[in-house]
User: Which sequence fits this backbone?
């Protein structure tokens, strides 16, 4: 791998770390970059997940001041649901062909963006704003963990949509919890890939270096965006990523 390819992957890691902390979907920067530079798709996906671990942990730490006052036991249940889902998703990635899942990905991202867009109205109609609905939240967080373990792109958008629908808190608080759950999924999936020997270490290391600086930058920016502005950004970004993934799926 040449020096400019290494610089490009590290720069993509920086951008992905920042985007993941603010909203999610940073993998749609690093993953295509690695594929365009000649890394096989599944190897790029795994290197991306492993490389974004330091950035996702740094992003969760950088957003810690926005965590809502919820019981640690319940936060632990959400983390456990994410971890179980991540193991299932990582196992599926190493066992099943990616082609069929790529067809579904654009629809999942679009659904997540719509959830964020209409979350205030949905919450008002369902009564979610009056209190957190823990049972459906746990089930859907586990499902998001499966998605994240298999193909991590846009899991942050999906988690923001789910938290907005089922948890009584503001979008900045949802973002703080999203960063924790996203970090858990990335760490657990990465450990699975390391244990099974599927990691291409050079691109993973380059993404890791860039993502740490990007995540801390993203946390600083994200906490200064007004709730309405952050919601609009999430929705526009989600629609754009759904269109990009649909276009990529149709090309293959």
Assistant:
């Amino acid at each position: 791998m040449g020096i400019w390819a290494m610089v490009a992957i590290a720069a993509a890691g920086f951008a992905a770390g920042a985007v993941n902390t603010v909203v999610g979907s940073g993998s749609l920067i690093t993953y295509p970059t690695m594929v365009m530079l000649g890394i096989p798709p599944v190897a790029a996906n795994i290197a991306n997940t492993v490389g974004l671990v330091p950035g996702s942990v740094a992003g969760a730490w950088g957003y810690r001041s926005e965590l809502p006052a919820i019981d640690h036991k319940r936060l632990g249940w959400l983390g456990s649901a994410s971890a179980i889902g991540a193991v299932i998703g990582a196992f599926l990635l190493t066992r099943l062909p990616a082609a069929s899942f790529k067809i579904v990905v654009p629809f999942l991202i679009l659904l997540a963006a719509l959830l964020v867009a209409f979350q205030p109205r949905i919450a008002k109609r369902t009564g979610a704003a009056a209190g957190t609905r823990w049972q459906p939240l746990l089930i859907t967080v586990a499902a998001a963990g499966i998605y994240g373990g298999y193909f991590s792109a846009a899991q942050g958008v999906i988690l923001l949509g789910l938290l907005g629908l089922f948890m009584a808190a503001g979008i900045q608080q949802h973002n703080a919890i999203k960063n924790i759950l996203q970090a858990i999924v990335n760490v657990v999936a990465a450990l699975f890939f390391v244990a099974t020997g599927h990691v291409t270490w050079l691109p993973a290391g380059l993404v890791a270096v860039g993502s740490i600086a990007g995540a801390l930058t993203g946390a600083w920016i994200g906490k200064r965006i007004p709730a309405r502005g952050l919601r609009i950004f999430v929705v526009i970004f989600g629609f754009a990523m759904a269109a990009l993934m649909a276009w990529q799926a149709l090309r293959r």
Summary: The mean pLDDT is 83. Residues 3-251 form one domain. DSSP finds eleven helices and no strands in the chain. Residues 106 and 125 are 27 Å apart (CA to CA).
